[in-house]
């Protein structure tokens, strides 16, 4: 599943379509009517968490890549049918695959809390803390995947952040010392920007410390693994030696 930093990279790559008129809109989507975009001008491209947003005058196309979604700019993936394909002048195109698409009506500011996006200039760590403390029984692993609190944070970020701050994924939010809660909030944003830089360098996997790994780089212990952890039921990797369980 593409995480927030990957969507920011897509947004930056798609900025060249701002001000361009859609000449063709096709795809195998059964949810929206692609023809609505034909003849419309792209007013802006934005991102919120894991959502990629293409703004028109009075509505917005929202693309969510789910678990296996992907995209191609000015190219097409062989032997794959696009969920949605937008064509522009001079043969330019935006293609989206295996994703969820929908239209959002009206003002995006009424739909999205930009302060919850960990990569947004409007990110507000104080608001994140206020939201967290209202969920004392929530597991740390679930908290970092909660899009209303950490929009854009995904499974890689979750595993790596918890290892950075030495917190076991099954720790409860209400049991975390105030200092650890602050570290979680800070590192969720800091690691997201590290992720962004490594992804642009095609070096993200080289920097993984515990995600999809077998041994802890800090103490050499064999990492614990669970295929479905927490309410989110996502893969978790952690070190029982250096990541403390707070209950």
Outline the structure in words.
The radius of gyration is 20 Å and the shape is elongated. Helices cover 23% and strands 20% of the residues. It has 247 residues and is α+β, with helices and mostly antiparallel strands. Helix 1 packs parallel to helix 5 and helix 4 crosses helix 5. The chain is built from 5 helices and 10 strands. The strands form 3 sheets. Strands 1-6-7-5 form a 4-stranded antiparallel β-sheet, with no helix packed on it. A 4-stranded antiparallel β-sheet has the order 2-3-4-8, covered by helices on one side. Strands 9-10 form a two-stranded antiparallel ribbon. The protein has 2 domains: 107 residues, MutM-like, N-terminal (N-terminal domain of MutM-like DNA repair proteins), CATH 3.20.190.10; 119 residues, Helicase, Ruva Protein, domain 3.
Low-pLDDT windows of residues: none
Percent strand equals 15-25%
CATH topology of the largest domain: Helicase, Ruva Protein, domain 3
Domain count: the total is 2
Order of helices and strands: HEEEEEEEEHHHHEE
Number of helices: 5
Major sheet: 4 strands, antiparallel
Q: What percent of residues adopt helix (DSSP H or I)?
A: 10-25%
Rg, Å, rounded: 20 Å
- CATH top level assignment of the largest domain: Mainly Alpha
Question: What's the end-to-end separation, in Å?
Answer: 30 Å
What is the mean predicted local confidence, pLDDT?
97
What is the topology, as strand order, of the major beta sheet? 1-6-7-5
CATH architecture of the largest domain: Orthogonal Bundle
Number of strands: 10
Using the alpha-carbon principal axes, give the shape: elongated
Helix/strand class = alpha+beta
InterPro entries: FPG_cat, FPG_N, H2TH_FPG, Ribosomal_uS13-like_H2TH
Protein name: Endonuclease
GO molecular function, one term: endonuclease activity
Organism: Noviluteimonas lactosilytica
């Amino acid at each position: 599943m593409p995480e927030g930093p990957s969507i920011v990279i897509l947004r930056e790559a798609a900025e060249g379509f701002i001000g361009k008129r859609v000449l063709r809109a096709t795809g195998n989507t059964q949810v929206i009517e692609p023809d609505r975009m034909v003849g419309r001008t792209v007013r802006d491209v934005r991102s919120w968490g894991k959502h990629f947003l293409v703004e028109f005058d009075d509505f917005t196309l929202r693309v969510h890549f789910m678990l296996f979604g992907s995209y191609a700019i000015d190219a097409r993936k062989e032997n794959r049918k696009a969920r949605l394909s937008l064509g522009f002048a001079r043969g330019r195109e935006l293609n989206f695959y295996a994703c969820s698409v929908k239209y959002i009506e009206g003002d995006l500011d009424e739909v999205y809390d930009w302060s919850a996006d960990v990569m947004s200039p409007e990110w507000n760590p104080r608001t994140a803390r206020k939201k967290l403390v209202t969920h004392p029984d929530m597991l740390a692993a679930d908290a970092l995947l909660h899009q209303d609190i950490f929009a854009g944070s995904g499974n890689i970020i979750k595993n790596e952040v918890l290892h950075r701050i030495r917190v076991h994924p099954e720790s409860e939010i209400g049991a975390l010392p105030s200092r650890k809660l602050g570290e979680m909030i800070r590192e969720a944003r800091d690691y997201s920007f590290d992720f962004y830089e490594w992804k642009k360098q095609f070096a993200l996997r080289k920097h993984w410390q515990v995600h999809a790994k077998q041994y802890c780089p800090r103490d050499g212990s064999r990492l614990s693994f669970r295929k479905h952890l927490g309410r989110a039921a996502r893969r978790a990797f952690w070190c029982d030696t250096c990541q403390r369980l707070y209950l």
